Amino acid sequence: MNSIFPDSTQFFTGKKSIILLKEFIKKELQPDKIFILTDENTNKFCLKPFKKIIKGFDNIIIIIIASGEQNKTLASCETIWSELAHNKATRKSLIINLGGGMISDIGGFVASTYKRGLKYINIPTTLLSQVDASVGGKTGIDFKGVKNMLGVFSFPEAILIYPPFIETLDERQKKSGYAEIIKTALACDKSFWQQLSELDFNEIIDWQTLINRTISIKLQVVNADPFESGFRKVLNFGHTIGHAFESYSMKHDNTPLLHGEAVAMGMLCETMLSNKISGLKNEETKFIIDYLLKNFNYYSIKLEAFPELFNYIFQDKKNEADEFQFTLLSSPGRAVVNQKTNIEIVTQCLKEYINLKVEPASENHFLF
Ligand code: GLY
């Protein structure tokens, strides 16, 4: 069985982390077979640590799937389940998810459903998955164009945060992860936000300290409410509109937004909404918006996109029945959940978003 409580997930980080993880697998998990799930990109860019991880193990089966959120589908699950069946995976087998958020989402889901649950380990290779996606037991796939519509909570046995992976990332990938760091600070930790608000993305060198702080904040939230019955929803700040942008972009753009890029724009709109609904002060709103515009790429939308965006917003699983609920900010570093709003106010925010004055350099290149 997979771990039920996040407390039991082991974290390995730092220089010796790969050796320690391998000892943990051999001594504690003793799998009969190890399946490594990865994607084309990870296989290409993270080959050296990948070889280090598999050295010394027998019975390793590697499953490579196509990369990108657009492949986080039932069809990819079928491919993976078929590989597991073909290679006679048993309930003593272990799955290692090596890749970004898409891999830990789909790998955790496949592991949790195959034969009612195999143990799994996450080795996140992107900043986004190190600080958010791989931590906290949310697994799932997109379905009928809606993000994470099918999924289960299921916690990994272990997570390996291996610093050198950060060096393999391009700027877009790093910014995408940085958006989740900003989200965690804005939603949960005023002093962390104050520290970040004085930083410029381009000047950050010490990623490891930011990663550790973000994970530690996230774990406090997850441990308090592992199955998101209430409090954990604070981590969804920026995600209702962010997911709508992401789904929209996946459908219409040749180069779709990365998850964090969409969340950054979602945070922008939901900061405006916070100003109207949950008491975020004018000067705080302006400061956050300026910071987001300075550090992330603005994504252009047109009025014609609104009906489709609202479809996605209504389908968001955080909306119970027909109610329209958001996680918003009451002040920087403090998110409040279940904030009821209506279509008119959200439309007003989206219109304000469209009208933001953006320097051409920060505008994206994938307009439609
Ligand atoms: N990504 C938000 C959460 O894990 O709850």
Task: Quickly give the CATH architecture of the largest domain.
Answer: Up-down Bundle
Which descriptor suits the 3D outline?
A: globular
CATH domain class of the largest domain? Mainly Alpha
What CATH calls the topology of the largest domain is Dehydroquinate synthase-like, alpha domain
The neighbouring-strand order within the major sheet is 1-8-5-4-2-3
Count the helices. How many? 14
* Strand/helix succession: EHEHHEHEHEHEEEHHHHHHHEEH
Number of strands: 10
**What percentage of residues falls in helices of 4 or more residues?**
40-55%
Give the biggest sheet: 6 strands, parallel
Instruction: Outline the low-pLDDT stretches.
Output: none
CATH superfamily of the largest domain: Dehydroquinate synthase-like - alpha domain
**Rg measurement, Å:** 20 Å
Mean pLDDT across every amino acid position: 91
Bound molecule kinds, no repeats: glycine
Q: What fraction of the residues are assigned to beta strands by DSSP? A: 15-25%
- The domain count comes to 2
Structural class: alpha/beta
Distance between the termini: 46 Å
